[in-house]
Design goal:
By secondary structure, this protein is mainly alpha-helical. Helix content is 54%, strand content 6%. The chain contains 6 helices and 2 strands. It has a two-stranded antiparallel ribbon. A hairpin with a 7-residue loop joins strand 1 and strand 2. Helix 2 packs antiparallel against helix 3. The radius of gyration is 23 Å and the shape is elongated. The N and C termini lie close together (9 Å). About 17% of the residues have low confidence.
């Protein structure tokens, strides 16, 4: 990508970008491959639901799910307002897709509430008593990371789930 700064009399200079042949090749390659879910299933909310469920406290689960439901409802209202005002049909389409993602997240909140709180909290008591199940390799030695995969996923051998922060992975065709 090449950039050229153009002076404007009233406004600040504007920068005009032009894609290079190598950039075009990379863009074509990027557009031709599928887009996997970028956040995976280790996002902050999933970790909160897991931790709340393992706490064994119905009030904690209700609070986590209620906070997320409120946040998602506000996000859905904002997206709906933006979509209604969008003049560009592609922007409208993208806002509709974003709304559907939020609706799916709301459905997950409903599902979590139905599964975790349906029996008045009895299931939560069994989850707390059972502790976390490690994905592979069985239990680790007390207080140590389960294994290299467990360390990357944030699992510890005790009843603790610790999110592991990773640096963001660049996405899109432009690399600087």
């Amino acid at each position: 990508m090449v950039a050229e700064r153009q002076a404007q009399t009233v406004k600040p200079d504007r920068v005009v970008y032009e894609i290079t042949p190598a950039g075009r090749t990379e863009l074509d390659r990027w557009l031709g491959e599928p887009s996997p879910r970028s956040g995976g299933f280790r996002d902050d909310f999933f970790l909160k639901v897991t931790a709340a469920a393992r706490s064994g406290q119905p009030a904690t689960v209700r609070a986590v799910l209620g906070n997320q439901r409120g946040h998602l409802m506000r996000e859905l209202r904002n997206l709906d307002g933006l979509r209604r005002r969008a003049e560009d049909p592609v922007v409208g389409l993208l806002l509709t897709a974003a709304s559907r993602h939020v609706e799916a997240d709301l459905a997950f909140v409903d599902d979590a509430e139905a599964v975790l709180l349906a029996d008045g909290g009895a299931l939560l008591g069994t989850l707390r008593a059972a502790g976390p199940r490690l994905p592979t390799g069985g239990p680790a030695r007390s207080g140590r990371r389960a294994d290299r995969r467990g360390a990357r996923s944030g699992l510890l051998s005790r009843d603790v789930l610790v999110p592991v922060r990773r640096p963001p992975v660049p996405s899109g065709p432009c690399r600087t």
